[in-house]
Backbone:
């Protein structure tokens, strides 16, 4: 682990492996720990740079929710790559991290060698849906601040989106995931929702046809909503490829890690990336 200061905030970063860089961005309530299994599988071929996003894990949690906005995420992640001496990386993200990776690739395509988007979306194109999502996210942010992280995690683990985790993940793995989620701060989670939630994010649907990088959209077969998003994105992306992981829901990398790792690593190895992106 290392502490990296960019743009006046501190990020917790874990780098391991050798070879082309893969910038790995976790989902909401996550941390660098979510990529442990992938990093172990990839270490012989790739350098995995996992980051705690603002408001998560051991990274800073600024008071101003505007500091979490998507455009600031792009500035921070490209500055982080500069700090590490990496010119171009594969950007890999899960859920919230996938939205961030995709949005960053549209504004800084010169820094993106390829994309791996797990259970991601290009945002909400319908304005009324976006506004309602912002209202819902604000209500959830206030609930987190009012009731605290433990009560929120109890609720978050119970939503239908994660129901398959109880079936697919071992008890010890679910306990570790819960312990990791509980380490987050109320302020960080609330401001992350406000600043970079799906409602706050500007949609990028119209930019997909001009995004000329190889892109793997990964989804769990049991996650119908995000499978539809993935098919939509692959239809619009010039070099989009779909990977559907059997017997997995929203978090395929946790529910079926071997299948997820195999799909992603086969994709990356087939790109003939240079020995290093530094």
Residues:
């Amino acid at each position: 682990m290392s502490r990296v200061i960019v743009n006046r905030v501190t990020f917790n970063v874990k780098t391991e492996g050798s070879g082309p860089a893969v910038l790995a961005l976790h989902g909401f309530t996550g941390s660098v720990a979510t990529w442990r299994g992938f990093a172990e599988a990839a270490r012989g071929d790739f350098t995995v740079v996992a980051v705690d996003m603002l408001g998560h894990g051991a990274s800073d949690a600024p008071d101003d929710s505007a500091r979490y906005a998507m455009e600031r995420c792009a500035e921070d992640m490209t500055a982080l790559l500069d700090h590490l001496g990496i010119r171009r990386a594969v950007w890999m993200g899960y859920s919230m991290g996938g939205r961030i990776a995709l949005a960053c690739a549209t504004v800084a395509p010169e820094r993106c060698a390829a994309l791996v988007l797990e259970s991601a979306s290009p945002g909400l194109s319908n304005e009324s849906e976006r506004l309602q999502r912002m209202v819902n996210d604000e209500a959830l942010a206030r609930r987190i601040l009012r009731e605290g992280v433990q009560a929120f995690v109890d609720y978050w683990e119970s939503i239908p989106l994660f129901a398959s985790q109880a079936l697919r993940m071992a008890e010890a793995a679910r306990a570790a995931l819960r312990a990791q989620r509980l380490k987050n701060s109320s302020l960080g989670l609330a401001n992350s929702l406000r600043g970079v939630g799906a409602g706050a994010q500007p949609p990028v649907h119209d930019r997909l046809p001009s995004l000329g990088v190889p892109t793997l959209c990964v989804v769990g077969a049991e996650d119908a909503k995000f499978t539809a998003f993935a098919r939509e994105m692959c239809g619009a992306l010039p070099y989009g490829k779909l990977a559907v992981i059997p017997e997995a829901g929203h978090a395929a990398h946790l529910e079926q890690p071997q299948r997820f790792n195999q799909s992603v690593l086969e994709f990356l190895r087939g790109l003939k990336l240079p020995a290093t992106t530094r």
